[in-house]
Amino acid sequence: MYEFLDKINGPADLKRLSVEELEKLCAEVRDYMVECCSHNPGHLASSLGAVELIVGYHYVFDSPSDKIVFDVGHQAYAHKILTGRREAFASMRTRDGISGFPRREESGYDAFGVGHSSTSVSAALGLAEAARIKGSAEKVTALIGDGALTGGMAFEGLNNAGASNADLLVILNDNNQSIDHNRGALHNYLLRITTSNHYNIVKERVWRLLGDRSLRRFIQRWVRSFKSWLVKKTGGDLFESLGFRYFGPIDGNDIHQVVETLTKLRSMQGPRIVHCLTTKGKGYAPAEADPVTWHAPGRFDHLTGERIISKYPHARYQDVFGKVLLELAEMDDKVIGITPAMSQGCGMNLLAEARPQQFFDVGIEEEHAVTFSAGLAAGGLKPFCNLYSAFSQRAYDQIIHDVALQKLPVVLCFDRAGLAGEDGATHQGVFDLAAYRSIPNTIVSAPKDELELRQLMYTAYRHSTGPFIIRYPRGMGEGAAWEGASFEEYEIGRAETLMEGSDAAVITIGPSAYAAMEAAKSFPGRVGVFNFRFLKPLDTDALTHIAEHYRTIITIEDGTLTGGLYSAVCEHFAACGLKLRVEGIGVRDEFVQQARQSEQREEYGICAAGIEKSLRKVFGE
Predict the structure, then answer these.
(1) Per-residue pLDDT for 197 more than 70?
(2) Active-site option among 327, 366, 450, 612
């Protein structure tokens, strides 16, 4: 039971509280957030740091008529809790539960859907201009932070907004972190203007001389004023030059400062930005001490902070990638790893620690990551650029124009490909097979297990013309022995026969090969299973063999049926004038909703039981 939180069913209830009571409410929101996320994992540290900003916003503004657009949607947990979804928050990120990110379909308080970064200013500007055109008095705010300001699209939005004279407020949540540690000149700039030598020398000298608490409180107030003046004088120029009025920095974890500042800024017009300094993981000691790990900590004991570490019987694909990349980098100092702020998530932290001279974290900038990799390749190096599959879509243009068109040997490793689980529609990596199959000069591959990932990475390392895409799923591998295995270069475009049969052929790409072999056991001697490691180039010799020996074909892919393996096989047979029965198992023409990966695979039949069901259907059983 919570003294204040239990009475908050919407933002209007906040306005009945005093600012002092809001301070207690913030503590209750954090406690509830920690308790829920301890057994239903989510993105915790970012939302803990943004509590006062969100509570203060809903206290001052009149949502949902006033609109707030979040950047990096995992900052929005307090927003969900305070906007009529307090009880539903316990079911967040589960099947049929609420999303872990803002979704317009979910609530009228979610003004704009978001699953990735750097979009808030552009979207908020659009909402602000729509309000102006309609003659509405609604206020529009963008809450950007957690590394999102490093993304190029954020600057495109700021540049346009500053020149537009739009009635737009931008709250910069400067927590000195993204998912991993922030990188780049902008981060260093913001860090520099808030850590001035002049300010810190004064602070440290005065602090050593003071012991009295009342004097310290007085000095703290003075220091905040001095710091604000110093940063505005030396740092606000960046935003002022873009046409924004700059305010701050303020303590974004001080609800009194937040409410006072937002109240003043609400009545102003034009583009304005308030710079708020917050602590990622605020209010929960383990998250404050290690915000990178506690960005998404998994399950944990909320009382002790002890994480409940899942024990995997097999290696995760991201760990295999990280270790193999390090092996290749040790073999050849021309091998370079590039990641857009996901070094731990993709396993590249191993390379960063062991051989930092061969590693680049470019920040949350997928487009830049790809073109930067293209430049490295043009300079004679061998870049391995790791992107989460869903986020590779942001760099589609760069992959075409800067890599494929120039036939540059960039290895593009797409982590979290296929059905990705609880993060919902924005994070499913189901479009990559269809998206990249159409690009000339491009190889598209997917390993069936850990060993094939190792060998495909080596094959890509040996390749010298055009982009080489390797896509692999989130989570645990299949248990194939891979560590210490001798490197083997695969023949590009060559499929693997796993078993032959008499009636139906199952063509797979990726780890679904194992589910297909399991399903085939129910039909002894009748089902052939073929592992197409490469979607492009397609093994047409294998397809000719299959067409000659099987009357029915089933394709399996953890991606969209439209444009993927199913489409490629059908197109080939149609071009050859062959009339064969081809059935496809994969993702229907729809966005995949949140659920556990196992639940998603059952939903689309990409599991042994689903494949067996499809085989019985084609056999008329």
Answers:
(1) no
(2) 366
